[in-house]
Amino acid sequence: MPIRLSRIGHVALRVRDLQRAKKFYTEVMGFKIAEEDPEHGNDVFMSLGHDDHNDGHTFDLVQVEDPQTASPPPDRNGVGYAHIAIKVDTHDDLKAAHDHLVSHSVTVDRMIEHANQRSIYFADPDGNRLEIYYEYPTARELFRRGRGDRDFIFTFDDPVPPWATGVPDDWDPETTAERYHRGTVRTMEQSS
Ligand SMILES: [Fe+2]
C-alpha cells in the first residue's frame, strides 16, 4: 500500500520580522490569517481564505530567533527551495496581481512566458522568492506533447498565445512557440 498523500498543506517560512511579513502576506498578497498563537512559538498560519478544507493553512510564518544574525534565503547556488509558486485562475488575475504588487512597490523582476503558463517572479520582504502564475487550460496536453519552453519574456500587451486554448495538430515543441514569439518578445539571452 503506497503512502496516500492528499496535497501540500503549508510551507513554513522563517522571517526576520514577523509583523512585516504578516503585513506583506495579508495586505499585499491577500492572505487571511487562519491562526495566531503567541503562546505557541509566535508564528502565524496564513490561508488563501477560499476553502478551509482545501487550502490547508498554506503559509506558516515563523519568526527567526535572532534577526541580526539570521542567514538569508538560499541563492541560485544554494540547496533548498528556489521559489514558491501560487496559481491564479485567469490571465486577468495575473495582470491584476502584477499591478497590485507594483502599486505596493514590490519589484517584479522577471515575467516569463513558459509555453504552458505565464509567470511573474518577485520576493517577499525577507527575500523569500515567490512566483504567481497563470497556467493555460492546455498545459497538461503541452506537457505530454512537449512544450518547448524557451523562457520568453512577455508583457501584458502581448496576447496570450493561441495554444493556450487549443493545441494545434501540427504543434512542434521545437519551433512553434519560437516562430510565434520571434519579433514580438525577447528571449532571456537577448534581454541580458
Ligand atoms: Fe516555478
Task: Describe the structure concisely.
With 192 residues, the chain is of the alpha+beta class. It is 23% helix and 24% strand.
Portion of residues within helices: 10-25%
Main β sheet profile: 5 strands, mixed
The count of strands amounts to 9
Q: Which ligands does the model contain, each kind named once?
A: fe (ii) ion
Would you identify the regions where 5 or more consecutive residues have pLDDT less than 50? 185-192
Which structural class do the helices and strands define?
Answer: alpha+beta
**SSE succession:** EHEEHEEHEEEHEHH
Number of domains: 2
How would you characterize the overall build of this protein?
- By secondary structure, the protein is of the alpha+beta class.
- It has 2 domains: 7-66, Roll (2,3-Dihydroxybiphenyl 1,2-Dioxygenase, domain 1); 82-192, 2-Layer Sandwich (Signal recognition particle alu RNA binding heterodimer, srp9/1).
- Helix content is 23%, strand content 24%.
- The protein has 6 helices and 9 strands.
- It has helices at residues 18-28, 52-55, 91-103, 139-145, 176-181, 188-191; strands spanning 10-15, 32-36, 43-47, 58-63, 84-88, 110-113, 117-123, 129-135, 152-153.
- The chain has a 5-stranded mixed β-sheet.
- Strand 2 (32-36) and strand 3 form a beta hairpin.
- The relative contact order is 0.13.
- The model is unreliable at 185-192 (pLDDT under 50).
- Residues 83, 85, 131 line the site of fe (ii) ion (FE2).
